[in-house]
Design brief:
By secondary structure, the chain is mainly α. The protein has one domain. Helices cover about 80% and strands about 0% of the residues. It contains nine helices and no strands. Helix 4 crosses helix 7.
């Protein structure tokens, strides 16, 4: 099957993750939800692997979920140790207040629903807020597992059923897809830098 499902899969590190299969999803999930958020990368790799049909699609959904839960818990644990100060360093005061209000009102759903939503919805703020707000670890893991499990089950099943159509689409529009991907990466980096400089100034 072609590698043109997404341009990032042609980059050496993605090539290695792709060849690892399920374990590659596990590693990527840990990085994407903790160390280095890579918007959309988990969905792309899950779809690509499920489309190959080498393993049943629930296997890839499971590996993606486990990786995401481990990575999410790392972020949660760090924020839990740092408390409110960690959240305010990571997020703006306005964003911190918004996420805190969401937890006060919705609790369990404040983790489960964002975990279910696809990119570009920002999920890391909710992980940080759950930890900084000393939210129950058991409830946090339950909500995170539920949300990510449903999401990656849907993604993997779509890859299994419609993978060939998706591959053909990206093969045909490879150049525009690459340009859009680079543009979004540059824009995201600029916005992250601006946010960092604002918080540092404060």
């Amino acid at each position: 099957m072609s590698l043109h499902l997404n341009p990032i899969l042609a980059i050496p590190v993605w090539h290695r993750l792709r060849r690892l299969g399920g374990p590659g999803l596990l590693l990527l999930g840990i990085a994407d939800n903790s160390v280095v958020p890579l918007t959309g990368s988990m969905d792309v790799l899950t779809i690509w692997l499920a489309a190959r049909h080498r393993e049943p699609w629930p296997y890839y959904a499971l590996m993606a979920t486990v990786g995401a839960v481990i990575g999410g818990y790392i972020t949660y644990a760090i924020a839990r140790k740092g408390g409110k100060e960690a959240m305010e360093r990571k997020l703006s005061q306005k964003r911190s207040a918004q996420v805190s209000r969401a937890f006060e009102r919705w609790g369990f759903l404040a983790v489960a629903v964002p975990a279910l939503l696809p990119p570009p919805f920002p999920f890391v703020p909710f992980l940080v807020a759950a930890g900084a707000g000393q939210y129950s670890p058991r409830k946090f893991l339950g909500a995170l597992t539920l949300g990510r499990g449903v999401r990656y089950s849907i993604v993997a099943s779509l890859g299994f059923r419609y993978g060939n159509l998706i591959v053909r689409f990206f093969s045909r529009y490879y150049a525009p897809a690459l340009a859009i991907l680079i543009g979004l990466a540059v824009l995201g980096s600029i916005l992250s830098l601006i946010q960092y400089l604002r918080l540092k100034k404060r």
